[in-house]
Amino acid sequence: MLTRIEELGYSLRFEDVVTCRLPNKREQEILQIDETQAVIDVWRRCYDQDDRILEVTRRIIVGGRHELVYHYDRQT
């Protein structure tokens, strides 16, 4: 989808907000973890060149089961 948006002439940028915290009751049940296991809460927003939000994604993952790796190129 994002490739098609770029083909229409939009310039996209992304913002990730990552926090680590203890899970709430619902997350404990869904993720099958206890209250002492940390979760990573990731909000990703995709913006166009006019700072309009085009997409929002939220992921809640068990901290001890995942690794987050980010690669960044130098912007000019």
Considering DSSP H and I runs of 4 or more, what fraction of the residues is helical? Answer: 10-25%
What summary fits the major beta sheet?
A: 3 strands, antiparallel
What general form does the structure show? elongated
Domains, number: 1
Count of β-strands = 3
Please compute the radius of gyration using only Cα atoms: 16 Å
Total number of helices = 2
Largest sheet, spatial ordering of strands: 1-2-3
| N-to-C SSE string, H for helix and E for strand | HEHEE
User: What fraction strand?
Assistant: 35-45%
Unreliable stretches (pLDDT < 50, length at least 5) are none
Give the end-to-end Cα distance, rounded to a whole number of Å: 26 Å
Average of pLDDT: 91
Could you write a compact summary of the structure shown?
With 76 residues, the chain is α+β, with helices and mostly antiparallel strands.
Task: Describe this structure as you would to a colleague.
The chain is an alpha+beta fold. The protein has one domain (11-65). 17% of the residues lie in helices and 37% in strands. It contains 2 helices and 3 strands; from the N terminus they run αβαββ. The protein has helices spanning 2-7, 25-31; strands at 13-21, 39-47, 53-62. The two termini are 26 Å apart.
Main traits of this protein?
three-stranded antiparallel sheet; 2 helices; single chain; 76 residues; alpha+beta
Topology (elements, then pairings):
Blueprint: H1 2-7, E1 13-21, H2 25-31, E2 39-47, E3 53-62
Antiparallel strand pairs: 1-2, 2-3
